[in-house]
Amino acid sequence: MNRQIRLGGTWTPTIGWLIGINVGVFLLQNFNPTVTEAFGLVPEQVWPGRLYTLITYAFLHGGVGHIFFNMLTLYFFGGDLDLFLGRRRFLILYFGSALAGGIAAVLFLRGPYVVIGASGALFGLLAAYAVYFPHTEVLLWFLLPLKMWVLVSLWIGISLFYSVLGSGGGLAYLAHLGGAVFGLAYTLRVWKPGPLLKDLQYRWRRRRFKRIQ
User: Fold this and answer.
1) Is the whole model's pTM more than 0.90, yes or no?
2) 123 within 8 A of 94, measured Cβ to Cβ
3) Catalytic residue positions?
4) pLDDT per position as a tens digit, 161-206
5) What residues make up the domain containing 80?
6) Total domain count for the chain?
7) Which of 66, 127, 134, 141 is deepest in the core (most CB within 10 A)?
8) Contact at 8 Å (CB) between 179 and 97?
């Protein structure tokens, strides 16, 4: 098997529009701080008059570092998924993951929190990427090569750990988990158990075949 190390992303018009919208909203936040108050996700205030924040929170960011690393992640992994799935299915995955992350925050997050950031949507993309391209290697911190399924498993494990402890420096780990769960569900088509079981059986047989080789 050829070794494939991920060094860059794939640029598509869809990714360009998503990054452009996120950056534009971030600039607007800095010129007008009330944008964050109006469109950020406050779990205790979503129902009934602020349901729109279940999506709009994903276009807000808390600082340069926050939006930079989120958009870098979107560039690294989003383009391949956009080409692989097609624009319509990719956007369903992206916005569905963002919505699932927002719902998870509303259901389980307690306290006067304001949830912002595209991380819920991105965790859905990362989970999907790990399913479709599990053996692609990425450079963690641009130094440590890890297979995609290992990296995503670590990130999901960290989010689960901090969600259970209720800590983590203010990061909305529950939104991360919600996005990842939707990404896995959408990718594996859990509402169609027949194809899912056949796919798992195929993967297991192929793994045994490789071991014999």
Assistant:
1) no
2) no
3) 119, 176
4) 665 555 544 456 778 888 999 999 998 876 565 655 665 565 566 5
5) 5-212
6) 1
7) 127
8) yes
